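[Discussion] Sanity-checking designs against the backbone

I'm trying to build intuition for which residues belong where. Below is a structure token string of 201 positions. I'd appreciate it if someone posts a full sequence so I can compare it with mine line by line.
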């Protein structure tokens, strides 16, 4: 019987690792070392939309680590925030976080979560989950307090919000998979891992 391959998460993201660990999956992490900013600029210059950017970045991460670890099952993921076709990156500072949240206030946007599994340097599986989120028309007073309390931790999330914390108060409605919103479309990934024999059926 062929032993199950090691599962490797090609990511430095604490939230993605926490989602996978919380599901009881044994895995290792390894930084893909992909220049995400350069690849994103290249894709956008070629006319890629935010959904395609998420898919291609997840693929690039998975393939980069799989090339170094061909015997393992490598998972790469990325997420983009899409406001009417405009891609939002993680805010560089709290002033930019405020600008992003102000732009999103009272409006709906999409989060695209692209995830790819690679083995032997080739794509073995992929999927993309799109969630829709509607922010409420919160007050400037709430926004000021939210930014003050959250501080620089908010800079690690696109849009400057963390749904698993106080960021939940920014929203009035959400449609989509909670885990995908956190950055890792967990349920389809678990289905693939079971099918592949990497975790128990």
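Best answer:
Here's mine. Compare freely.
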């Amino acid at each position: 019987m062929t032993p199950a391959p090691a599962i490797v998460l090609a990511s430095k993201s604490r939230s993605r690792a926490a989602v996978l660990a919380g599901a009881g999956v044994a895995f290792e992490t390894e930084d893909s070392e992909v220049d995400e900013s350069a690849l994103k600029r290249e894709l956008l210059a070629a006319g890629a939309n935010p959904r395609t950017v998420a898919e291609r970045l997840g693929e690039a991460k998975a393939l980069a680590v799989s090339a170094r670890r061909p015997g393992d099952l490598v998972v790469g993921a990325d997420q983009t925030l899409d406001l009417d076709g405009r891609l939002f990156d993680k805010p560089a500072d709290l002033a930019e976080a405020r600008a992003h949240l102000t732009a999103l206030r009272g409006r709906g946007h999409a989060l695209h979560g692209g995830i790819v599994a690679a083995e032997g340097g080739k794509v073995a599986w992929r999927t993309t989950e799109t969630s829709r989120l509607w922010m409420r028309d919160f007050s400037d007073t709430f926004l000021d307090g939210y930014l003050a309390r959250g501080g620089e931790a908010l800079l690690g999330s696109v849009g400057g919000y963390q749904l698993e914390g106080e960021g939940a108060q920014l929203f009035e409605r959400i449609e989509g998979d909670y885990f995908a919103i956190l950055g890792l479309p967990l349920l389809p990934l678990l289905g693939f891992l079971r099918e592949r024999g990497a975790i128990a059926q």
